[in-house]
Task: inverse folding
């Protein structure tokens, strides 16, 4: 009988699992944190702490299982990110710059949580706030701010993604009700929401936002979760069919009459998405920096190598440019001067630059870069959704192109 092998030395058995790669390092090279007041900074720090303590350690599980983490909703509600820049109605009432930084922190924690927020706050609450009557705001926004009512927006259709102007879903008046018919696709929160703003054309050809409450309980509403995603697997998007769905007449958003009104919502929601890209890039960069500082190859830490330092410098420079552009965009929003073209440029730059950052980070981690427990892989995959939703890179580019040439390439 052969002798038992000698036990492996403890140092050789202790392989880091990457848990430390998800912890915040507060990347802010040009001290943009100075733009926040004390209350806003406290909110940002609370979101950062919640993500580090609750979101990051659990994100691998729900990402791999493609499971919506409903247990995270109370913690998300407590952060007060929902409708953060809305004044009144139980919302935090912070500046648009602070709201953007809060959204970036959520994305640094996990893309699925950030997308849940982008839909609930950036789209649904924004639709009610910008386009609803005062009575409608008072009716829905307070419970949405507390996240007792989860919101969604149904705009994209199976045959019309970026070409949302070609809206085919219809709304016809029948007495004191609107009757909705059509189909929607890629609707975030669409299978779990308590309130969905459905965009449809009325009989006069005008575009309206129609609030459907408790949609899962309504006749003619069918929402099926889209499966097989490789990105943002912890948040569900739905394919929705509407077959004679009835809503009360007073649940058409009072100020939603044309597609220009819809664009007001898209201009605001794309700001959220640009900030999300910042968060993903920061997460990947900080993970790579932590990894390079402790990972030894050829007898010394990776961080002492010139090529690694060059990559890290490239990453933090790109992140800083993203932070600066998004900050200026949010300052314009605070002044009432941010247009859909400003938001398009910010999303165009932020998502493109973030793609480069997460790519460098994934490469820097070597084989560990494809492991979920090292976190970078999750952000690498999730950014692909951010790169596309709320308008693809090419659509954002054409919006900017139209602004600088005065000529539209869409029609």
Result:
């Amino acid at each position: 009988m052969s002798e038992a092998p000698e036990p492996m030395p403890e140092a050789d058995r202790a392989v880091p699992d990457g848990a430390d790669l998800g912890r915040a390092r507060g990347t802010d090279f040009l001290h943009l944190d100075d733009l926040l007041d004390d209350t806003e900074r406290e909110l940002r720090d609370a979101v950062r702490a919640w993500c580090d303590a609750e979101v990051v350690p659990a994100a691998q599980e729900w990402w791999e299982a493609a499971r919506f983490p409903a247990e995270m909703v109370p913690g998300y509600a407590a952060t007060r990110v929902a409708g953060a820049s809305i004044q009144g109605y139980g919302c935090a009432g912070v500046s648009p710059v602070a709201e953007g930084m809060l959204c970036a922190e959520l994305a640094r924690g996990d893309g699925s949580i950030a997308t849940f927020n982008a839909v609930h706050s950036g789209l649904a609450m924004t639709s009610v706030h910008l386009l609803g009557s005062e009575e409608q705001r008072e009716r829905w926004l307070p419970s949405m701010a507390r996240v007792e009512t989860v919101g969604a927006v149904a705009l994209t259709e199976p045959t019309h993604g970026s070409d949302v102007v070609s809206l085919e879903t219809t709304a016809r008046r029948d007495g004191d009700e609107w009757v909705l018919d059509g189909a929607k696709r890629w609707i975030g929160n669409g299978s779990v929401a308590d309130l969905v703003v459905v965009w449809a054309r009325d009989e006069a050809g005008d575009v309206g936002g129609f609030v459907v409450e408790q949609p899962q309980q309504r006749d003619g509403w069918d929402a099926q979760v889209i499966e097989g995603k490789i990105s943002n697997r912890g948040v569900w998007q739905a394919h929705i069919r509407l077959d004679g769905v009835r809503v009360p007449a007073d649940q058409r958003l009072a100020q939603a009459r044309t597609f220009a009104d819809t664009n007001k919502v898209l201009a605001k929601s794309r700001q959220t998405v640009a900030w999300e890209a910042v968060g993903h890039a920061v997460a990947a960069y900080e993970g790579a920096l932590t990894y390079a500082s402790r990972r030894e190859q050829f007898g010394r830490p990776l961080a002492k190598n010139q090529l690694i330092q060059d990559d890290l410098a490239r990453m933090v420079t790109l992140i800083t440019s993203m932070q600066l552009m998004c900050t200026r965009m949010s300052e314009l929003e605070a002044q009432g001067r941010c247009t859909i073209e400003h938001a398009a440029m910010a999303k165009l730059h932020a998502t493109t630059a973030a793609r480069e950052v997460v790519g460098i980070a994934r490469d820097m981690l070597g084989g560990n870069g494809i492991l979920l427990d090292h976190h970078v892989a999750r952000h690498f995959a999730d950014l692909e959704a951010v790169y596309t939703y709320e308008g693809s890179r090419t659509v954002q580019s054409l919006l900017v192109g139209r602004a600088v040439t005065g000529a539209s390439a869409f029609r």
Q: What stands out?
A: The chain is about 50% helix and 15% strand. Residues 259-294 form the longest helix (36 residues). Confidence is low (pLDDT under 50) at residues 1-5, 7-15.
